[in-house]
Design brief:
Number of domains: 1
Radius of gyration: 15 Å
CATH topology: de novo design (two linked rop proteins)
Structural class: mainly alpha
CATH class: Mainly Alpha
CATH superfamily: 23S rRNA-intervening sequence
CATH architecture: Up-down Bundle
Oligomer: single chain
Length: about 120
């Protein structure tokens, strides 16, 4: 599969971490009324995405690896949904930040994660 031994060298994890930072910045712009709703959910998934990639990466069996990569895909889907939701409701907060910037990074992570999953399955 891969000769990469450290998570820091794994591109899919690097890009997921970058997306996580973007999502944290977005969540921090949301109003206080969203602290235990949308903001919390965005942050949980922003952490969960790279964390599940990392957990799968360090597991021994293919089955375990794929399980955590699948959870990471779920986190990515929830992030995408919540970003749409945040922009639909709080568009005025995001002056200068285009929705497209988020979706470009989401799509980039999605493609890398899909490729990583396929590579893992075929290894």
């Amino acid at each position: 599969m891969s000769t990469i031994k450290e998570i820091e060298k794994l591109e899919v994890w690097q890009e997921a971490k970058k997306l996580g930072k973007m999502i944290y910045e977005l969540a921090n712009k949301l109003p206080k009324s969203e602290d235990y709703n949308l903001k919390r959910h965005l942050k949980e998934n922003a952490r969960g995405l790279p964390a599940n990639i990392a957990e799968g990466f360090y597991r021994y069996s293919k089955k375990e690896k794929l399980h955590f990569y699948s959870i990471a895909k779920g986190c990515l889907g929830e992030i995408k949904n919540d970003v749409y939701f945040a922009f639909d409701i709080y568009l005025e907060i995001f002056k200068g930040k285009l929705l497209e910037e988020y979706f470009q990074q989401i799509d980039k992570v999605g493609k890398k994660l899909n490729k990583f999953i396929i590579t893992t399955k075929n290894y």
